[in-house]
UniProtKB/TrEMBL annotation:
<dbReference type="InterPro" id="IPR037401">
    <property type="entry name" value="SnoaL-like"/>
</dbReference>
<dbReference type="GO" id="GO:0016853">
    <property type="term" value="F:isomerase activity"/>
</dbReference>
<keyword id="KW-0413">Isomerase</keyword>
<feature type="domain" description="SnoaL-like">
    <location>
        <begin position="8"/>
        <end position="126"/>
    </location>
</feature>
<dbReference type="Pfam" id="PF13474">
    <property type="entry name" value="SnoaL_3"/>
</dbReference>
<protein>
    <submittedName>
        <fullName>Ketosteroid isomerase homolog</fullName>
    </submittedName>
</protein>
<dbReference type="InterPro" id="IPR032710">
    <property type="entry name" value="NTF2-like_dom_sf"/>
</dbReference>
Length: 129
């Protein structure tokens, strides 16, 4: 039987594959109704709820379809009995972007029954100025 850390790792890897392929139902699959996401583009106060989260993805999918990558390079997961968090570094960009630029991802999860759900996502890029 898989450990919670392994289950969460699989959940995040599946989410990243869905993001890369533009599969919106796959992106939303393991997210809580009331999730909060802080993203690179506005709004500065983030988005709240599954509907607002869902609305952020079509523009990203359009940008990505022009040749951008979205690939997990490093992923660490820590899980307790009812809550967990993970952080990752991803290659997210076009071939014209600096090759070492990394998207930083932090995810908070809550266990409901036997199922882990993402309740928080935070995406950022390092400030390069």
């Amino acid at each position: 039987m898989a450990t919670d850390e392994q289950r969460i790792r699989t959940l995040i890897e599946s989410w990243a594959e869905a993001v890369h392929s533009g599969d919106l139902p796959g992106v939303l699959r393991d997210h809580a109704e009331g999730l909060v996401m802080f993203d690179v583009p506005p709004p500065q106060e983030g988005v709240r709820g599954i509907d607002a989260y869902s609305a952020t993805w079509p523009p990203f999918f359009e940008w990505q379809a022009r040749g951008a990558s979205f690939e997990i390079l490093e992923l660490e997961v820590t899980a307790g009995q009812e809550v967990a968090f993970a952080w990752a570094l991803l290659r997210c960009g076009t071939p014209q972007d600096p090759p070492g630029n990394r998207l930083r991802l932090t995810i908070g999860l809550r266990k409901e029954g036997d199922r882990w759900l993402v309740t928080h996502e935070h995406h950022s890029f390092p400030h390069t100025d």
